[in-house]
Structures are given as structure tokens and as C-alpha cells.
């Protein structure tokens, strides 16, 4: 059976769950409400196989959340600002300006639910597709980044920017028209008023892994915080929860732990060409998720 791929984010994102989306939706089912506290590339939401209803996504990264808000509201304008050839000097200059604007921009993103900046959104996604590794809009850098991996997302050769890019952003905008995009701490979208009061609620939790390969992953403590929330809320009859992590990272009695294989992320670019963590990917499903119809087939299918 061929895995579905309905939509994809127009930028690369470490740890995206597009390869696991079909598995996740098979266990969440056609829920009336969906919440994703660590939005990232929205891989699961964009690959939803049935018509969306109420949806809320959140991310602490103000530029990521700004992009999703802006592309939902003014996709043509975001595409216009993203339409620019890859240029190392421009990449450095925009990186510097985005960092300088970050404090004021973050404050408005955190306090004004309808605020967005299309120019910053276009610049951010353009740079996200040209920058190598970590550090884009995160840290000051005097050294210009290498451009050897610049042909990704909106900067890939096909489809070209321009009309094709605008059309794709319009497609994303139509899909996200009724999706609420929050910016802040992950648990701010897990209160009663956002979750089960809207009916059966599917929640996908994909925090940085404790054993992750990214430089910040093992220092945030987010994984254990999220696990604690899952232990407290996992038996709620109106919540179907999927928690992502690596083998052995979580101990959740009564939950179904299912293995799957990720794409490999930056680890696949190592000189030896190996990334063992992709074989250790696990998703824990809470007791009220849709039962697995055939565990053997499911595991084989998603590997």
C-alpha cells in the first residue's frame, strides 16, 4: 500500500513526521478537534486524510508561527517576499535583520493572536531553505553559511518560484483557513477550553527528544514535562494522544508503543552515512486511541 502524501511544508524541518502521519491518523481517527502544541512543519495536520474540523497548532518559535499565520492570511504576499534567488550576502543580511527584529516581533506574536508580518515570513522561509543545519534566525554569525544545500523547499529547482510558488501557498492558505495558530509555551493549547470541550480531541505531541541529535534537544527538559502531562491526562475519555520519542524514552503504562522509521534528518548526512536514531523512532498512543487493526501489518507498513 502506498503511503499518502497530501501536502508538505515549503521548507525543510528536522524531525518532521510526514512518514508517520498515516499511522498517527489511523490511531486518532476522524476526531472533531485536533491540537498540535509543537507545530513544526505541520506534517501530520497537512496529511490529514479526512475533512478538518476544529484545529489549533502552536509553536514557541515566533518566526515559524508567524509563517503559518501569514501564509494562511496573505499567501500571495508571503510568496512575493520569498521569491528571491539564493544569494549568500543576502542570506547573511536577512539573518542579521531577522535576529534584530526578533524581540519586538516575538512580543507581538505572543500577545496578539491575529498579528503576523508577511515580509518576515517570506524572508524566513526563503532563508530556512538556504541555510545549513542549525542557527537560522537563532544566533549571530560572522561567518557566512555554506550554500551547498540551498536547493530545498521554495528554493528547489522545480517548481520554480513565481506563479507556481504563489499557487502552492494559496493551496496551503485554503487548507489552513480555519486553523488557529498560537505562539507560546506548549501547554497553553492543552487547556479544557481548547481540547475536550470541543468533543473528541486528537493531540500530537512531538517535543525535542531527550536523546535527540540536535544541539539543544537534551537540555530542554521538555520531553519529561510532556511525559508527565501525558501520565496525568492519558486516560481522559475524550482525548486521543500520540507522543513521539525514541525507544526507551517514555514509560507510559497502558499506552501502545509503536515503532516506525524516520527519514534520518541531519544525522543521515554524517560522513559514515548512518543515523541509527531513525530506527529507534517510537510513537506512544494513549488508551483511548483507535485500536490497532493489525499490529504486525502496521509495523511492517510504516517501516
The CATH class of the largest domain is Alpha Beta
Major sheet details: 7 strands, mixed
The ordered string of helix (H) and strand (E) elements is HEHEHHHHHEEHEEEH
Structural class, by secondary structure, is alpha/beta
End-to-end separation: 12 Å
Cα Rg: 19 Å
Q: How many DSSP E strands?
A: 7
> Strand sequence of the main sheet, in spatial order?
3-2-1-4-5-7-6
Average pLDDT confidence is 84
CATH fold assignment of the largest domain: Rossmann fold
Name the helicity range. 25-40%
The CATH architecture of the largest domain is 3-Layer(aba) Sandwich
Count of discrete structural domains: 2
Shape: globular
- Tally of DSSP helical segments: 9
Low confidence ranges: 1-5, 214-219, 265-273, 294-303
Description:
This protein has a seven-stranded mixed β-sheet with strand order 3-2-1-4-5-7-6, with helices on both faces. It contains nine helices and seven strands. It has helices spanning 21-28, 43-46, 62-73, 75-82, 88-111, 118-128, 163-176, 222-233, 295-301, and strands spanning 33-36, 54-58, 179-182, 201-205, 239-246, 256-259, 281-285. With 303 residues, the chain is an alpha/beta fold. It is globular and about 55 Å long. It has two domains: 1-60 and 184-303, Vaccinia Virus protein VP39 (Rossmann fold), CATH 3.40.50.150; 62-176. Helix 8 links the parallel strand 4 and strand 5. Helix 3 (62-73) crosses helix 4, helix 3 packs across helix 6 (118-128) and helix 4 (75-82) packs across helix 6 (118-128).
Amino acid at each position: 500500500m502506498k503511503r499518502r502524501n497530501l501536502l508538505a511544508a515549503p521548507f525543510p524541518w528536522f524531525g518532521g513526521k510526514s512518514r508517520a502521519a498515516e499511522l498517527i491518523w489511523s490511531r486518532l481517527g476522524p476526531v472533531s478537534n485536533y491540537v498540535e502544541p509543537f507545530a513544526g512543519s505541520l506534517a501530520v495536520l497537512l496529511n490529514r486524510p479526512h475533512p478538518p474540523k476544529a484545529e489549533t497548532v502552536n509553536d514557541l518559535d515566533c518566526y515559524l508561527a508567524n509563517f503559518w499565520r501569514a501564509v494562511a492570511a496573505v499567501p500571495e504576499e508571503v510568496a512575493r517576499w520569498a521569491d528571491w534567488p539564493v544569494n549568500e550576502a543576502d542570506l547573511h543580511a536577512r539573518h542579521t535583520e531577522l535576529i534584530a527584529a526578533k524581540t519586538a516581533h516575538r512580543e507581538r506574536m505572543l500577545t496578539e493572536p491575529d498579528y503576523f508580518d508577511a515580509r518576515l515570513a517570506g524572508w524566513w522561509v526563503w532563508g530556512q531553505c538556504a541555510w545549513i543545519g542549525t542557527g537560522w534566525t537563532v544566533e549571530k554569525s560572522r561567518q557566512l553559511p555554506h550554500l551547498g544545500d540551498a536547493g530545498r523547499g521554495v528554493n528547489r529547482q522545480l517548481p520554480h518560484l513565481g506563479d507556481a510558488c504563489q499557487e502552492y501557498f494559496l493551496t496551503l492558505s485554503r487548507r489552513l483557513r480555519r486553523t488557529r495558530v498560537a505562539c507560546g509555551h506548549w501547554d497553553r493549547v492543552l487547556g479544557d477550553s481548547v481540547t475536550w470541550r470541543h468533543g473528541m480531541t486528537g493531540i500530537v505531541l512531538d517535543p525535542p527528544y531527550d536523546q535527540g541529535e540536535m544541539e539543544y534537544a537534551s537540555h530542554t527538559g521538555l520531553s519529561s514535562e510532556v511525559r508527565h502531562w501525558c501520565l496525568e491526562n492519558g486516560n481522559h475519555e475524550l482525548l486521543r494522544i500520540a507522543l513521539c520519542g525514541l525507544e526507551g524514552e517514555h514509560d507510559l503504562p497502558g499506552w501502545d508503543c509503536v515503532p516506525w522509521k524516520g527519514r534520518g534528518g541531519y544525522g543521515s548526512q554524517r560522513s559514515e552515512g548512518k543515523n541509527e536514531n531513525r530506527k529507534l523512532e517510537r510513537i506512544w498512543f494513549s488508551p483511548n486511541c483507535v485500536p490497532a487493526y493489525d499490529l504486525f501489518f502496521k509495523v511492517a507498513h510504516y517501516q
